[in-house]
Design brief:
Structural class: alpha+beta
Number of helices: 2
Number of domains: 1
InterPro entries: YegP-like_sf
Number of strands: 7
Organism: Flavobacterium macacae
Protein name: DUF1508 domain-containing protein
Distance between the termini: 30 Å
CATH topology: PH-domain like
Helix content: 10-25%
Shape: globular
Strand order of the largest sheet: 4-5-6-3-2-1-7
CATH class: Mainly Beta
Largest sheet: 7 strands, mixed
Length: 115
């Protein structure tokens, strides 16, 4: 099962990344100003992942990616995939595992402070 990982970005902005069971980043969000907004969007994504629209794209270098869209709003952009088959597998994993994903919040404390 995968996990949503919330982190603090730049000064006071937050973002999340959804990581697969194997620890690979599957998709990431844009920046959020408020932590409560990111938490509510994660819950919305989990509740609607099975029916979410994944708009597929191809880069000029031949890589594939998708944008996760729910109710006409883009919530995340996927990592790049080498083939369209891998892209399809990535989309299938989202539909299967995202609704059951846990949320990990790494914004509260500096976990490497004592190192």
């Amino acid at each position: 099962m995968g996990a949503f990982v919330i982190t603090k970005k730049d000064e006071d902005h937050y973002k999340f990344a959804y990581t697969s069971r194997k620890g690979k980043i599957v998709f990431t969000s844009s920046a959020y100003e408020l932590k409560m907004d990111i938490e509510s969007d994660i819950e919305l994504i989990k509740a609607n992942a099975e029916n979410a629209f994944c708009m597929k794209f191809k880069t000029s270098s031949g890589k594939f990616f998708y944008r996760l869209i729910i109710n006409d709003k883009v919530y995340a952009t996927s990592r790049k995939f080498n083939t369209s088959l891998r892209l399809e597998k990535g989309v299938a994993e989202v539909r299967l595992y995202v609704p059951k994903a846990e949320t990990l919040d790494f914004t509260g404390a500096d976990i490497f402070a004592d190192l």
